[in-house]
């Protein structure tokens, strides 16, 4: 598998099979690269966000997870849960510029497109901290576990595509490479 250019080639990473670039379908913010699985309701987002220097490294992944829960309107009790947070050894990563790296797994009960129906999604979050560039690289893998029959995503249930795995997500994290630091301004 060869690396896929991200952010105009400033970064690259190995993206899983069956990935469709969502920017070809709708407008995506400049600080994000978004991929959707061609046959399931899974998605991957590589996002450049402001480095949160006031947040300790060991708390940073949880901070971003809770920020995403807020954006997903999933902050009420029982709507989100963190199941694990682990430090990733820098020796396992191609992004040698990061000061620390973290992986979080949790669940969120979210709705798509402001629908009433809520889906239970396992969210795998990778966080690569780049304080020298005032940037946190946030990589999220949204893996639906339970999709409401009233959700617009219900049509994706039961399709024949091979879903992405946590290993696919971890490969993306490990292979993320910086080619042009000018990306960070």
TrEMBL record:
InterPro entries: Mog1, Mog1/PsbP_a/b/a-sand. It comes from the Eukaryota. The keyword Transmembrane helix does not apply. GO terms for molecular function: guanyl-nucleotide exchange factor activity; small GTPase binding; sodium channel regulator activity; transmembrane transporter binding. Keywords: Guanine-nucleotide releasing factor, Protein transport, Transport. One of its GO terms (cellular component) is nucleus. One of its GO terms (biological process) is heart contraction. The keyword Protein transport applies. Belongs to the MOG1 family. This is Ran guanine nucleotide release factor. It comes from Echeneis naucrates.
